[in-house]
Amino acid sequence: MKLGWRIAALHNGLRDATAYPIEFIIEFLSAAIAPAAIQWVLWYAMFKIGGAQTIAGMDYHSMIHYTLVSILFTQIRGGDHDFELAEMIRSGQLSNYLLRPVGVVEFVYLRGLGPKLFISSFCILLGIVIGFVSGMSPLRILGSMLLALIGNSIHYQISASLSAVSFLWEEAYSVLMVKNMLVSLLSGELIPLNLFPASYQWIWKSTPFYLYVFGPAQYALGHWSDAQFFQQVLIGGFWLLIGWGLIRISWGLGIRRYLSLGG
Amino acid sequence: MRSLRYFLDIYRVQIKNNWVREAVYRSNFLTSVTVDMIWMVVEMSLFTIIYANVPTLAGWTRPQVYFFLGIFFTSDALFTTFFQRNFWTFSDLVNKGDLDILLTKPVHPLFLALTRWMNITSCFNIILGISIAIHFAPTAGFEGGIRWFLAFFWLGIGLISALLIRFAFSIWVFWTERSWAISKLYYQFFSFASKPDVIYPPWIRYLILTIIPFAFIGSIPARALLYGLKLWEYRLIAIVLFSFLLLNTFLWKKALNRYQSASS
Description:
The structure holds two protein chains of two kinds.
Chain A: H1 4-17, H2 21-49, H3 60-74, H4 81-91, H5 94-98, H6 104-134, H7 138-163, H8 173-186, H9 201-205, H10 214-220, H11 226-257
Chain B: H1 2-24, H2 27-51, H3 62-88, H4 90-95, H5 99-104, H6 109-115, H7 123-140, H8 148-170, H9 173-176, H10 180-190, H11 202-209, H12 219-226, H13 231-258
Helix pairs in contact in B: 2-3, 3-7, 3-8, 3-12, 8-12, 8-13
């Protein structure tokens, strides 16, 4: 297993993302603040205006706490590298990568992971600072970040498999957009998933998306025990295996149809 | 009058050209409709989950919020149909020097820059949005009847607001060269438009009614139709939109002075 090109890809991705530092900071802040502000607004409307005391076992302060902690993990999930893969297939640029002695899916992932690792380091520090005030254990924050990074890998694997639709259909970006919309609701980025009515809880439990934001936030906040955390890491590992299989199948089938002619 | 007719003639040609292009890329229709339908479902699901936990949200019942969403979806679909694609290519106008060609035409370059591309397939989403509003109107307490004509006026206000705000976010490409982050910032703020303004804390509500008036896209139109507005709110809308028009005109002139025609 050659590490050289992998480290270079990570480094290259980080440099690419931070080439325009002001853009990078604006993107980071806007992606963090807007979803949190929307959450806070909802809690404000439900508790302060509506006068509710507890909702799904959480009071106003628990909701705010969840919102603050979820910001740390919303920055880790996702990225646009799945769209990059789909565009490479559609436009025929994939050919350039097929000539190189690296796996294209892994290469694109590592390039996208570079800035995420940088952001996750920053979020860990931020989490530790928040933890000092709110009493969250630094170890739990580290564990949560690990879960969020597992979520990031699963997310990319699913996205890379979906981007293989580009081998068949040039409008594959729409599949990725639909996936992103579902993820935003089912990851816990918009609302804590325990707000789902009991009869609909199975929806988020049957996808791995809750491992992106809701799961890490639950562990960081102390709502999950260490045993539950390790159970979720195992579940994450299981989803990683499924994701790996999905990539092998979808790209194996797709590459046979690839004509390298562009879209 | 002659000038207006001239612009209308050009606009008619733009629609024809876009229609021909859409006819070529027919699969785009299915794609666009599917993506927007899922987006609508996700937005409605969010409120469905919230209303599973509380009976009202800042005094708004579930059908009232769905009615608001119908108006918001329609307003957004109008913007998507007629303007959105032009903003996606707006940075190319500056960075690749494509604006050169528009500046040489005997029409206002901004008119061409903002109307060249349309997304005709999004017309279907206009129908979807209106259908949602019509479906929930009776239970939301909307009187209906002749008041539906008011909906056209308020949708027009929503469209103009979206256009002015989006332009105010895009024009900075003349200075920053890369507009990707600012465009993303627009879409992050845009999520404020997808909730009724009454649920916001006072200072955020103040912001979305003045400095970044995203509430004008869907929330104010829906509230005006459901409850009517106070006199000061009508004045506020007029002042804010007029101020944005002045600001955008000022920035456009400054931007043209700065433009260096990258392609030449």
